[in-house]
Amino acid sequence: MRQAPLEFARAVYGINDHSSGRTDTMAAREVARAQRQGMPVTEERAEQRARAYLPTAGQEHCPRCWVVYGQKNPLRFRDTAAERPETALCHACGAEYATSPD
Fold first, then answer.
1. pTM strictly above 0.70
2. Residue 72 — very low, low, confident or very high, per pLDDT cuts 50/70/90?
3. How far apart are CA 62 and CA 77, in angstroms?
4. Which of 19, 74, 77, 102 has the fewest CB atoms in 10 Å of its CB?
5. Of the given ranges (8-12, 37-41, 84-88), which has the lowest mean pLDDT?
6. Mean pLDDT: which of 24-33, 54-63, 78-87 is highest?
7. What is the 3-state secondary structure (H, E, C) of the chain?
8. Domain segments of the chain: what residues?
């Protein structure tokens, strides 16, 4: 799971979209949702969290929830099937990540 840098970029896009009035993008909605929950999202704090994202095996947590909200919500893994790779789902924000062997 090397998604934290992508979630940081997504947070920055959301911050910029939200501040410039483009509130209809998914990233801007995520930033607005975080702010409504009392978690102000700043570029500096999102970058710190993205750099600090170090999940341990068996205790993987959602990179989006960590970067945007500072919360460690556990991921739920679904095994590989013929039509899809192994995926990890976050029950809190709805993010889904395809996993790959390191």
1. yes
2. very high
3. 11
4. 102
5. 84-88
6. 24-33
7. CCCHHHHHHHHHHHHHHHHCCCCCCHHHHHHHHHHHCCCCCCHHHHHHHHHCCCCCCCCCECHHHHHHHCCCCEEEEECCECCECCEEEECCCCCEEECCCC
8. 4-98
